Each structure stands twice: as C-alpha cells, then as structure tokens.
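Entry type: protein chain
Record version: 2
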Amino acid sequence: MEEYEKFCEKSLARIQEASISTESFLPAQSESSKELNIEKRKEMQQEKQKALDTEARKQVNRKKALLTRVQEILDNVQKTVKSETFCVIRKY
C-alpha cells in the first residue's frame, strides 16, 4: 500500500510541475483563453435569449391565429343561427 501512495505522490508532483511550467511559458494564452471563454459564454447566452424570444413570438402568433379562427367559426355560427331564425319567423 505504501508503494501505491508513493506512486500517487510522485504522479501528483509531476502533474503539478507540468502545470506550473505550462503556465509560466504561456501566461498570456491562459488569460486570452479565459477571455475567449467569457466571450463565448456571453455569445451563447445571447443566442439562447434570441432563440427564447423567437419561440415566444411564434407561440404568440400561433395563439393569435387560433383565436382568429375561433372567432371566424363563432361568426359563422351566429350568421347561421340568425338566418335560420329569420326563416322560421317567416314561416309563421
């Protein structure tokens, strides 16, 4: 078990050294990468918001179309009822 612990400690030390040496060679790249990630996140957020707005507009338009169709049906029913009522009245 002790050998495994030593192996883990050595591996961790190597990884940490590699990480430190990479950061010391490329500090600007690290910062620009962070900025790029922030910019990408903002861009993705904007795209997501656009998609949500578009979907909301589509739903509003669908509801308007359905309401218009329902109103047309109601108008037709009222016209039919009025004409049938008029015909019944004329018979008497």
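Comment: The radius of gyration is 36 Å.
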